[in-house]
């Protein structure tokens, strides 16, 4: 009998199956198979918070299939993700299969490579119930808060609202930043830039720094003009030139938090997109037989550790020395210290194989996969490289008692900067007019006491800026600093508060909605602990203590409920004398019956515009909400990167019966058109060119070779990167079905895959 390995996702199952051979069958649970019921609380508070789990609706057939396979298997290995959530999924699977905890075979691997998977299978362990109980405690806490507070919000704010333990804190963070911005009073300040010319050498610029007795801020025009009048026509003298060498060390490899921050800043990706791509890279991608075929490209992506294995350090060093030379590798491997409270259960996020340069496997990756893999790979390799050496210079030039300064640096030895530089965080304007340090500054040969001549003097008025709104990167950074949430929850926190309409996106910024601000006000007044930063962080620490076996799930839940029940009772009494009104959001639509400006209302089928004079005026209209980004896009004419084949004019995008296409800008004088296509990153099995996606009749989608009609390959089913494990031919995703089938009809290979959310 074959051994059974149960993992979470079909793609992970496909990768692992290729490593273990015919003696193992690998099957996917597709996430959790059991959970608390949706219709009831599902937690017996009076009976030591006993949880009543049920099989998730729609998973019945899958559970039967897993039971059947487990019954026929010699051994059953539980190989879900190596974190609390993965441990809990394995526990639920063991329960569903009737396997006692002490007889479970739990295997985990930080990276999905052949070596790591085989090593894990050889050394299974029992389920870690401390990990399971930490996940259970979080689930029960969130269920209690959600089910006890949501009806409270329905009665007092608006039906359909829901509350969450950590999400309520995140909403408060964003609301309070918005309040800071509204309360911000701009502060006036002035700068004075002077262009100076020495007797020999190039001109250089300096900025007013202060007086000879120290730094000084110019707060108004009078102060600025006083300095200008004092120095106009007067000689300037170099009073100080300081040159120094300093080392700049590389940033450590990524944790979940820093990966999300850096990818948001450098790639412009939202946190949900980042984690989805990282999951794909972890679970496995077919990178061609010459590179090892199907395999995981990065280590586990939910971690707060900075630890790196000795083998990975050795591999990185070998690559650095071969690519850049021995001078770019430090004498000893770099070790990084994780922040206080980090769990260190897994390594930092790094490439599974250091030698797999991004450019080498680019053709096998989607554009998003390539960008994120390149970021992770470069960050890790750079973290193991020698420091950069910078030559810094700071020059002070005086005129009377007024001091002007310039400062900057040049790179003498690139070190890790030859490969990677960490992006700068958003800076809040301090309003002091300080000139930022400039890179590659080139000053003429200056000496103390040297005279220089002013070519121009430019005073300029400024106002300090308010603190910036949070975006995905800055919110995740703040949550981590406050100890709120954990690597596995950051993305869920953001997506949840947006889905609940407490927060909306304005470009990259996160902005509270009126309903979010009102709910936050109610939560702060009635449930201060739930939205308290410190309290929420202490709860996270409590969950960590359960994981480490230092406390029990029961004691943490009892401690929480003791205070929460009191708050809930007090809030119920207080709200009887308070009536909260959700502020109406006005539209630009004028009521054609009474002339009032219509407002946004929520109905059974979504938002609509209604007259504010209801019930005297019952006029309503459909409401199509358009974001500023959508409106801007509608104004733009998309010009193709190719010309009309008939007359050579520009081709512009148009929309017709069968979807988008490109037409000559001179239409109707020139009637040339060309169908709009999009590459899917899969080579044509006939000629090797790229396969493109096209629109057919009734806007249906089909796939064909980009060289059509020279190459006649086409298919209604979507080709995928993965090759058939039986015959090596291309696999296709069946149209409208969660099924992969082999292109070779004589092979007959087919495999079920998880149906995408949009099809479910």
Helix and strand topology:
Layout: E1 3-7, H1 10-20, E2 24-28, E3 34-35, E4 43-44, E5 50-51, E6 54-55, H2 60-72, E7 76-78, H3 84-97, E8 105-106, H4 114-122, H5 129-156, H6 165-183, E9 188-197, E10 204-211, E11 214-215, H7 221-231, E12 236-248, H8 256-267, H9 271-283, E13 285-286, E14 294-295, H10 310-323, H11 358-361, H12 367-383, E15 388-399, E16 402-413, E17 438-439, E18 451-463, H13 472-482, H14 490-499, E19 503-506, E20 509-512, H15 514-526, H16 533-547, H17 553-575, E21 586-590, E22 597-603, E23 606-610, E24 620-622, H18 628-635, E25 639-643, E26 650-656, E27 659-664, E28 673-675, E29 678-683, E30 690-695, E31 701-705, E32 714-715, E33 718-723, E34 730-733, E35 739-742, E36 750-752
Parallel strand pairs: 1-2, 1-7, 7-8, 16-17
Antiparallel strand pairs: 3-6, 4-5, 9-10, 9-18, 10-11, 10-16, 12-15, 12-18, 13-14, 15-16, 19-20, 21-22, 22-23, 23-24, 25-26, 26-27, 27-28, 29-30, 30-31, 31-32, 33-34, 34-35, 35-36
Helix pairs in contact: 3-5, 5-16, 5-17, 6-14, 6-15, 8-13, 9-12
């Amino acid at each position: 009998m074959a051994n059974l390995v149960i993992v979470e996702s079909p793609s992970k199952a496909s990768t692992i199956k290729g490593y273990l051979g015919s003696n193992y069958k690998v099957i996917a649970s597709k996430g959790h198979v059991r959970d608390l019921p949706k219709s009831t609380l599902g937690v017996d508070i009076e009976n030591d918070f006993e949880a009543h789990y049920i099989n998730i609706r729609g998973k019945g057939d899958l559970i039967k299939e897993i039971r059947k396979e487990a019954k026929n298997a010699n051994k059953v290995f539980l190989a879900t993700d190596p974190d609390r959530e993965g441990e809990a999924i394995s526990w639920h699977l063991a329960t569903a299969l009737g396997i006692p905890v002490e007889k479970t075979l739990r295997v985990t691997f930080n990276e999905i490579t052949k070596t790591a998977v085989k090593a894990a299978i050889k050394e299974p362990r029992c389920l870690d119930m401390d990990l399971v109980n930490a996940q259970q405690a979080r689930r029960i806490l969130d269920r209690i808060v959600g089910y006890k507070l949501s009806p409270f919000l329905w009665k007092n704010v608006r039906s359909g609202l829901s509350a969450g333990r950590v999400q309520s804190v995140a909403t408060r963070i964003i609301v309070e930043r918005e309040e800071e911005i509204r309360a911000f009073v701009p502060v006036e300040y002035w700068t004075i830039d002077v262009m100076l010319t020495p007797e020999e050498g190039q001109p250089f610029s300096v900025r007013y720094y202060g007086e000879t007795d120290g730094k000084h801020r110019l707060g108004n025009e009078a102060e600025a003009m006083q300095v200008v009048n004092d120095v106009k026509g007067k000689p300037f003298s170099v009073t100080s030139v300081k040159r120094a060498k300093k080392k700049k060390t590389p940033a450590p490899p990524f944790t979940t938090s820093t990966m999300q921050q850096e990818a948001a800043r450098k790639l412009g990706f939202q946190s949900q997109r980042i984690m989805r791509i990282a999951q794909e890279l972890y679970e496995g991608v077919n990178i061609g037989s010459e590179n090892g075929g199907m395999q995981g490209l990065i280590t586990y992506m939910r971690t707060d550790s900075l630890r790196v294995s000795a083998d990975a350090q050795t591999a990185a060093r070998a690559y650095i020395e071969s690519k850049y030379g021995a001078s770019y590798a430090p004498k000893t491997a770099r070790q990084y210290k994780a922040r206080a409270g980090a769990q260190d259960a897994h390594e930092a996020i790094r490439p599974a194989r250091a030698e797999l340069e991004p450019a080498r496997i680019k053709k096998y990756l989607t554009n998003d996969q390539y960008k994120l893999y390149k970021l992770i790979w470069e960050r890790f390799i750079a973290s193991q490289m020698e420091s950069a050496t910078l030559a810094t210079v700071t020059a002070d030039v005086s005129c009377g008692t007024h001091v002007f300064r310039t400062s900057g640096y040049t790179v003498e030895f690139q070190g890790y900067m030859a490969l990677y530089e960490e992006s700068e965080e958003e800076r809040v304007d301090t309003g002091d007019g300080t000139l930022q340090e400039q890179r590659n500054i080139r000053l003429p040969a200056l000496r103390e006491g040297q005279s220089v001549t002013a070519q121009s003097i430019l005073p300029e008025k400024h106002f300090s800026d308010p603190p910036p709104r949070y975006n995905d990167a800055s919110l995740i950074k703040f949550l981590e600093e406050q100890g709120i949430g954990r690597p596995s929850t950051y993305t869920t926190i953001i997506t949840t508060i947006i889905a609940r309409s407490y927060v909306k996106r304005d470009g990259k910024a996160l902005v509270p909605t009126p309903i979010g601000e009102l709910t936050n006000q109610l939560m702060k007044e009635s449930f201060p602990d739930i939205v308290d930063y410190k309290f929420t962080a202490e709860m996270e620490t409590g969950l960590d203590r359960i994981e480490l076996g230092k406390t029990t799930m029961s004691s943490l839940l009892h401690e929480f409920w003791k205070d929460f029940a009191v708050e809930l009772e007090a809030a119920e009494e207080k709200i009887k004398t308070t009536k909260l009104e959700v502020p109406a959001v006005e539209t630009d639509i004028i009521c054609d019956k009474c002339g009032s400006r219509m407002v946004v209302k929520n109905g059974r089928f979504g938002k609509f515009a209604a007259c504010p004079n209801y019930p005297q005026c019952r006029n309503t209209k459909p409401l199509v909400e358009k974001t500023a980004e959508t409106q801007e896009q509608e104004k733009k004419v998309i010009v193709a990167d190719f010309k009309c084949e008939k007359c050579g004019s520009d081709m512009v995008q148009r929309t017709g019966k069968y979807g988008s296409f490109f037409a000559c800008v001179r239409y109707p004088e020139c009637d040339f058109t060309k169908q709009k296509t999009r590459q899917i990153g899969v080579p044509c099995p006939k000629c090797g060119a790229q396969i493109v996606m096209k629109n057919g009749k009734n806007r249906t989608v089909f796939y064909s070779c980009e060289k059509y009609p020279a190459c006649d390959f086409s298919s209604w089913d979507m080709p995928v990167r993965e090759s058939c494990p039986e015959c090596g031919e291309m696999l296709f995703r069946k149209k409208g079905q969660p099924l992969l089938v082999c292109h070779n009809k004589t092979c007959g290979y087919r495999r079920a895959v998880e149906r995408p959310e949009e099809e479910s």
